């Protein structure tokens, strides 16, 4: 019992000491902070007008300045806005008109191009038909030339057949027929004209071969006499005793052939 009481007394003593120390510290802190709080209050009182002045001179003033600057701009914009919109509308209308005109020009050019293509196609068709007709005309001309050359050769062969040996009435020269259908006189090659049988018999072997080749007479393997016979036969040379008996008939045949060719050319096609 005696030991428990001193312990309780010690605990109470410590509590009282702690409370006293806490009060002393609180009092000291409050005493130390009192000048700071007083200074802060004074500073706040001094900053109040400054803050109000700043707010008044910054926010309000700048707001009014901005409004003052924006007001003329707004008034100017309000005045010129209809003009700007009108100008934009006018420019837009001009642009639309230009685009429409350009589109019309494109349509016209496309139409012209289409017509040009049609015209070019028609021209090509006409050219093709013309070329075909020219080809037919050329073929007809070649056929006609062949008939004419055949007629020239046949007429001279018939004429020569009535000249006997050619001394009284000389033979007519028969031209060479080229591969293209044109004619070439033997004199162009320097060959003597076959006016009579004497000229034929006196041909050199080279001249004889030129005549045979020019007339297209096959003479390979033939001797000179046989070659001369072939040449006489081609140009229409006949013995004198046979010439007079056939002259009238041959000329009549020539006249009939000419008439048939003139009036019925399709028979020679």
Automatic annotation (TrEMBL):
The chain crosses the membrane at residues 247-264. Keywords: Membrane, Transmembrane, Transmembrane helix. Residues 159-238 form the Mug135-like C-terminal domain. It comes from the Eukaryota. InterPro entries: Mug135-like_C. Belongs to the UPF0612 family. This is Mug135-like C-terminal domain-containing protein. It comes from Pisolithus microcarpus 441. The lineage of its organism: Eukaryota, Fungi, Dikarya, Basidiomycota, Agaricomycotina.
């Amino acid at each position: 019992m005696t030991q428990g009481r001193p312990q309780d007394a010690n605990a109470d003593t410590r509590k009282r000491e702690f409370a006293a120390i806490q009060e002393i510290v609180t009092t000291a802190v409050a005493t130390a902070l009192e000048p700071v709080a007083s200074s802060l209050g004074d500073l706040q009182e001094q900053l109040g007008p400054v803050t109000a002045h700043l707010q008044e001179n910054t926010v309000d003033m700048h707001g009014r300045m901005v409004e003052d600057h924006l007001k003329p701009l707004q008034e100017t914009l309000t005045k010129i806005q209809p003009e700007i919109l009108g100008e934009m509308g006018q420019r837009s209308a001009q642009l639309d008109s230009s685009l429409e005109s350009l589109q019309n020009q494109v349509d016209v050019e496309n139409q012209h191009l289409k017509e040009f293509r049609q015209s070019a196609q028609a021209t090509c068709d006409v050219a093709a038909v013309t070329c075909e007709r020219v080809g037919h005309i050329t073929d007809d001309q070649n056929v006609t030339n062949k008939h004419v050359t055949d007629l020239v050769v046949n007429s001279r062969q018939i004429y020569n057949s009535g000249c006997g040996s050619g001394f009284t009435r000389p033979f007519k020269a028969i031209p060479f027929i080229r591969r293209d259908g044109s004619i070439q006189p033997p004199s162009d090659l320097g060959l003597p004209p076959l006016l009579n049988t004497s000229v034929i018999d006196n041909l050199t072997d080279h001249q004889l071969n030129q005549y045979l080749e020019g007339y297209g007479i096959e003479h390979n393997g033939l001797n000179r006499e046989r070659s001369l016979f072939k040449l006489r036969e081609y140009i229409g040379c006949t013995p004198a005793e046979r010439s007079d008996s056939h002259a009238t008939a041959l000329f009549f045949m020539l006249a009939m052939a000419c008439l048939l060719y003139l009036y019925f050319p399709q028979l020679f096609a």
